Amino acid sequence: MDTSTFKSLIWNLSLPTLLSASFLTSCSTTATQADTVAADAEVVAVETATATAAAEPVAAMIERNPEVEETLWNQHATMKSPINSGNVNSMQMSWKYATPTPVSHTPLVDASGVYFGDWGGTVYKVDAGTGKLIWKKEIEKPKTMWPWHGFAGTGTLGDGKLFEASVEGTAFALNPATGDVLWKTRFTDDTEAGNLSTLLYHDGLVYIGVSSVEEPMTGMKKGFIPDFQGKVVALRASDGTMAWERVLVAPPQNGCAVWSSFALDPDLNMLYFTTGNNYTGEATEMSDAIIAVDARTGEVRWHNQVTQHDVWTKADQKGPDYDFAGGPQLYVADVNGQPRKLVGAGQKSGIFHSFDAQTGERVWNTNIGYGGIDGGMHGEASVGDGSVLTWSNNSYVHTMPPDKVKISVKKLNAATGEHQWVINHAQPAAIVPGYLANDVYFIGSLDGTLQAYNADGKQLMSMKAPAPIISWLWVEGNTLYFGGGVPGMFKWADKGENGVYAYSVKQ
């Protein structure tokens, strides 16, 4: 599932970011606790702040570029779509493309088609209007004995190429017109490491977060000892050679997987990402952290750890397993009357954190929902019009049907973190980010429920997709795209419906 955000789904696939290591694991919240959550949705206006504010802002001139903000800033929002609160009720499925294995890869859309990969190691291009196949290429033989495999993460478009990176540790550049492989390269020497993240292309470089299957393998293989060191690599788009790598933990310590998504600020020349927990041994300072590096060299500019001493594996559950399931998101907000560039991210603790994008100084943080191994935030928020829209699992247990535990949806003031409204028990549990199109906020659940909310919290639309929604939601034009499927850990799910779905509004 994507990932972005699959470690949760994926960890439980021993069960993506996604699906994000929390779903493969046992959960600390019991079914009895989860059943106490009411089934009715309720919109609650919130008048008191629950955020922790920070110091006076640093005044600075900020030049705005809407194109950069909608692409490189990872905001999960668009103001260009014709979808709005007045027509979203006309939305219906326009096509689906079935695949033999789950699709947690976010559909990538350009003028010529829709691109995606599946867990079987195959990459596809279909027509955006009809879903008709244009080409498909089986380019990676997945290690199906692993709890997640193939293209469980998400590729990216750039430099006239389609870039993909597998769980098995190989990166590819494909010709978007034909699917032919232009180059391929190994981006890790670790035999249990690869990609679960959402790749990012900018200015000739392709950024890949490196994660591992070692955390769940401790529960699958008796006596297994992790030795994985998390890192980010930057490959040259022209030929796949490595421009730089930033290793985040030194032996004998391990962990710090990067399995969500990236944000990039060309003006500051900073690349932002979030990290997971340590696996064994001593905790290190870059686990459970948001990190900013020089986008051209990988040199660390700043890092801010939000949870200390988080050492966790399936076999030895010491820490809370509160790693970030959502990648960083850049935005500008008026803090104490001054425009300030911030970077925020959501954590499995249930906390959304916001920092100064240039210095790393904490600006605010606020609670979205209950934390836990399968709880808290499992993906990125949506940012637009001075607000942050997001949701939280409330201690969902992956072995339970998703409708047993309902999520909380919240709208925050982007400058302060104050809650503007809350929808309690909004819809079944989820593992992927929502998406904001104008004044419509979409959320997709694990049982296939797809719902849309207005900017004031009113529910506008509800429908049911044929499969669990396990990729990012993505809007292009008048259409919402997403991937779906039934990984093995979902014992409660009907089998068979894997693929990509397109839902459109009438124009």
UniProtKB/TrEMBL annotation:
Its cofactor is pyrroloquinoline quinone. Pfam families: PQQ, PQQ_2. The keyword Translocase does not apply. Residues 1-33 form the signal peptide. SUPFAM superfamilies: Quinoprotein alcohol dehydrogenase-like. It comes from the Bacteria. The keyword Zinc does not apply. InterPro entries: PQQ_b-propeller_rpt (IPR018391), PQQ_rpt_dom (IPR002372), Quinoprotein_ADH-like_sf (IPR011047). This is PQQ-binding-like beta-propeller repeat protein. The lineage of its organism: Bacteria, Pseudomonadati, Bacteroidota, Cytophagia, Cytophagales.
